[in-house]
Amino acid sequence: MTDFNSTNFQPATFQLSWFPGLGAANHWISIPFCVFYVTAMVGNCTVLCIIWKDRRLHQPMYLFLCMLSINDLGVSLSTLPTVLSTFCFDVTDVAFDACLAQMFFIHSFSNMGSGILLAMSFDRFVAICDPLRYAAILTNPRIVRIGLAIVIRSFGVVLPLPILIKRLPFCHAKALSHAYCLHSDVMRLACADITVNNIYGLCAVLIVFGIDLLLIVISYILIMMTIFSLASGGRRLKALNTCVSHVCAVLIFYIPMITVSIIHRYGENSPPLVHVLLSSVYLFVPPVINPIVYSIKTKEIRKSILKMFSRGLELTGTVTAHHDGFQ
Question: Do residues 79 and 172 touch, judged by C-beta distance below 8 A?
Answer without folding.
Answer: no
